[in-house]
Specification:
426 residues; alpha/beta; Rossmann fold; five-stranded parallel β-sheet
Length: 426
Amino acid sequence: MTDYIPRVADSQMEDLLEAMGAVLVQGTKWCGKTTTAAHHAKSKLYMDDPFWKKQNLAIGATNPQRLLEGNTPRLIDEWELVPQLWDAARFEIDHRDEKVGQFIFTGSATPKEKDRKQIFHSGTGRFAWLKMRPMSLWESGDSTGDVSLAELFNGKSADGASHIDIERLAYLTCRGGWPGVLKMKEKPALKVAKSYLDGVINSDLAKIDDVKRDPQLMQRIIRSLARNQGGQIAITTIQADLMQNEHESRNEETIAEYVNILKNIFLEEDMAAWNPNLRSKASIRTSDTRYFVDPSIATAALGIGLNDLLRDLNTFGFLFETLAVRDLRVFADAIDGTVYHYRDSNKLECDAVIHLRNGHYGLVEIKLGGDTLIENGAATLKKLAKTIDTTRMPEPSFLMVLTGIGNYAYQRPDGIAVVPIGSLRV
């Protein structure tokens, strides 16, 4: 595989295969799961191969162990088509001499509800989970990678360069992190996200659980979510937005069902709230923040291009936040961390809190760029840092303003790192 593009997930995959019997790779379609998994596999079974699909399904229903035969690690792509493979793999791992590195399962959706009843074991102790997303700017070669998120946690100062100007950032936001676009010219690359979204709405929607649903309603709900990227919005807010902007009246249960479908196919990945120990008596808001897994989904849903973003910097700022969160999540996963948001009853907010399993954390404000926005972000970070009760939890490892544009990463006199997205890596 000479054309293989290295991914941040590669090192995670290697570590998990050395520790567990099987790795389940999940993520939205076209994000590179199968390519990455195949790179690490010694044998492969593509369940959805049109030539063999009918045979695979028949064998899977009667003798799933047969499909697991092959050199290890063995890739089972789109395993959810035969959910019995889950328990079969668990059984094989338990009864083979070699207990680790046996299987790699990939899937673009959780199994249908009726099929989940056929899975009798959670996989605990045998399966590890690995989530993949569209490529970060570092993976796609658009970031210099001069500033390491891992090294910021170890006390290193921010120092580096970025070559992304505002026009390029607008293009990258609309293009997205789909691996298939990297060898395309700019004009066709910008059409990929729209084609992807059309496929989800007009084809994948019907395959999720064999329930007939309204593609037009899904399209309108996706547009509503696109208008509200980075917001802690309830289903009732989406309902009101649909009435105001789409002239669509639906009950809360229906809207919630469609939103959950987007989560089940990993198109939407909401961000949970961070819950620190505080000195103040402010109550912490616990609503999730709405994000697509890639900003290009939002631009495709809204029918806007890079020139539209350049004319509307407010919308550009919200969609850049979706891009930044995508990259932070890719990097945080690789260093055993999770990305949260913070908001309290005093209206103090922080766009991203990267919290590691060891208890260390960093506070991040995401801004498109410019001195005023950077100053506003720095003020928020310092205010939140002072609110945290450091007698009950450690001080933040770093405070960072993550910007869309800017030629250089640097450390301010107050210690806050200012880092352009075009210089960041894991």
